[in-house]
Amino acid sequence: MDIFESVKMAISTLAANRLRSSLTMLGIVIGNASVIALVGVGQGVQNMANRQFGSLGTNVLFVVPGSRNATEKPKTLVLKDAEAIATQVPSVKAVAPEIDRRELVTYRDKRTYTSVIGATPPYPSVRDFDVAQGRFLTDLDLKRNAEVIVIGSDLDQRLFGDRNPIGQQVWLNNLSFQVIGVMASKGSSLGTNQDDAAYIPITTMSNRIVGWTSPYGTEVTYISVSAKNKASIDSAQFQITNLLRLRHRIIGEDDFTVDSQKSMLAVVDAITVGLTLLLAAIAGISLLVGGIGIMNIMLVSVSERTHEIGLRKAIGATQQDILIQFIIEAVILSSLGGLLGTIFGAGGILLIGAVTPLQAAVAPLVIVVAVSVSGGIGLFFGVVPARRAAQLDPIVALRSA
Amino acid sequence: MSNQTSHQFPVYSHPNAASTVHEQKPVIVRLENVCKIYGFGETAVQALADVSLMVEQGEYCAIMGASGSGKSTGMNIIGCLDRPTTGHYYLDNLDVAQLGDTELARIRNLKLGFVFQQFHLLPQLSALENVMLPMVYAGVKTAERRERAVAALTRVGLENRLHNKPNQLSGGQQQRVAIARAIVNRPVLLLADEPTGALDSHTTQEVMQIFKELNASGITIVMVTHESEVARQTQRIVWFRDGQVLHSHLLPEDIAQVASL
Ligand SMILES: Nc1ncnc2c1ncn2[C@@H]1O[C@H](COP(=O)(O)OP(=O)(O)OP(=O)(O)O)[C@@H](O)[C@H]1O
Ligand SMILES: [Mg+2]
After folding, report:
1. Residue B133: which of A315, A320, A394 has the nearest Cβ?
2. Do B105 and A1 touch (CB under 8 A)?
3. Which residue has the higher pLDDT, B150 or A222?
4. Based on the domain organization, do A38 and A93 belong to the same domain?
5. How many domains does one find in chain A?
6. How far is the CA of B195 from the centre of ligand 2 (A)?
């Protein structure tokens, strides 16, 4: 019997037993589709985490008041510390201290709370922000305690809608600020919407809005520092720590913490690796469950078909004829099921990408693994029991019906 | 029984038999001390106990005997569907035990035709496709396959039912499809295990007519039957009892005598 004949026979057998064929295929389709979709979603989550951290800026360090361990230490991080870091730490490119407060902003009849950030001119470069319209704060604004404000894109939408905000006056804490710029949209990072914000000179913030200073100087919420390059992050962290310990005359516990984006990324990496493992485990389980489904239907159909195998042998089929027929049937089912499963899985991912912010991705490797595992299971359980049945004496196979 | 010894080389009046008296014909089936035991130990059943039997070319022979006497077991061994536990079986002077799977398949395909009591047609295939199946395994070309299958079905009177599925055929028609399938590769030996067991007397007669014609055309036939009506239409009767051959050359007219024992 030639191969063409076997293929024809396999196809006609599959077509004649549509229910059985489609049930077998269903197991393969579900297994593949769920694995591909799940892993795709996992990758989407990873991408999102990476994007969020990436949006903090590149090679950024954060100097935060207070120690990681001792909470009772006074939190004293002042503007002068930032200036000292900028001038005395050689591996630092730029320094952006900031004072954050939630404030009510009013434009005509529109009032809204937003996060108001007292910032310095290097802020956009350190934090990787762009100005979309107008300009950012300048040294002159700071020197004059100018009442000027740069607004985030969301705030712009809320207050001004389609109107041009540049030159408009908004009220903040009974002061009138002139809008001088609008930031480009940045999205959210770690749960904070970075576009719902307003930036005013840090001096104005300190003198006119916060209104008091600590004995050490103007207290800041935290200081963002950008290192010269990736390689200098560690040395910058070390030098900043030394400088601040010196300035704060610290002998024991630090009253500040220097966080590098790297160390945060390490935490995130640990989390995403855990997440990936979890998803891989879920994917593995669904593949296993799909595999068991395939196995069951294959086993049932082979024992159902033992009679057929016996008859075919009784009228002259060799073991090899039977085996080839079952292999071809299993290959057809597995590849068709793999194809449909891939289409459904990829379709599901596209759908998820369209209706949620998750940028789920289709990974070719996952498709290869899923299709070959389920195909392998289909092939194994389609062929091995058939092989056993084909080795029986025809009368034994015929009787087993 | 005296019959057993007096018919060493049976001679029959056969319309197509070219030969005359006492010419030795090739032996198609030779069972030598065949035993078949099912199961092991306590539950072991001896279905065949030391059976020796010869069937020559051109014979038309019926196997009879009580239920459970080993008729089907013997037929299955003769049809190469089963193997003896001990003893030898020579088909056309070939020791079947020496043959591998591929050679056995080839013998079942080309030399043997088996008609089962339960028909055993593939339900998803039409009558024509069922009859073509042995030729698929024989490697016959598609066009010739069709031609021969139609001829075989015509021979059993089913030329108008070529495309019916088995469940669209009566029992007699299904049995005739099974016969067409058994003869389509022009076997040397046609085996039929109670081919008329499920048929009414009218269809039984039709099937017997077909067998008679097949035998007349030179095919050796061995069939198992319970019905003396059917056995009477053959030329030789082998009588089984308790897994042994009680009579190997009973004449049709002696059935009543043996059956009453
Ligand atoms: N697969 C089997 N396993 C165990 N015992 C079997 C098997 N097949 C047949 N037997 C036993 O072997 C003996 C002979 O059975 P067989 O089918 O050859 O009888 P038979 O003469 O064809 O009977 P019937 O006329 O009822 O068809 C019986 O006792 C039966 O129970
Ligand atoms: Mg029987």
Report:
1. A315
2. no
3. B150
4. no
5. 2
6. 11
For residue B132, tell me if it sits in a domain.
Answer: yes
Q: What's the rounded Cα separation, in Å, for the pair B225 and B64?
A: 6
Q: Is B119 left (phi over 0), alpha (psi -120 to 50) or beta?
A: left
Q: What is the pTM of this model?
A: 0.71
Does some domain include residue B148?
A: yes
State the residue range of the domain holding A203. 75-254
What pLDDT shows up at residue A65?
84
Over the stretch A334-376, which tens digit does the pLDDT of each residue have?
A: 889 889 999 999 998 888 888 887 777 788 888 898 888 888 8
Pocket test for ligand 1, best of B34, B36, B38 (most atoms within 8 A of CB): B38
- Asked whether the CA dihedral B141, B147, B153, B155 is positive or negative, the reply is negative
ipTM: 0.88
Q: How many whole angstroms from B71 Cα to the centroid of ligand 1? A: 8
Residues A14-23 pLDDT 10s: 888 888 888 8
Domain assignment of residue B56, given as a range: 27-259
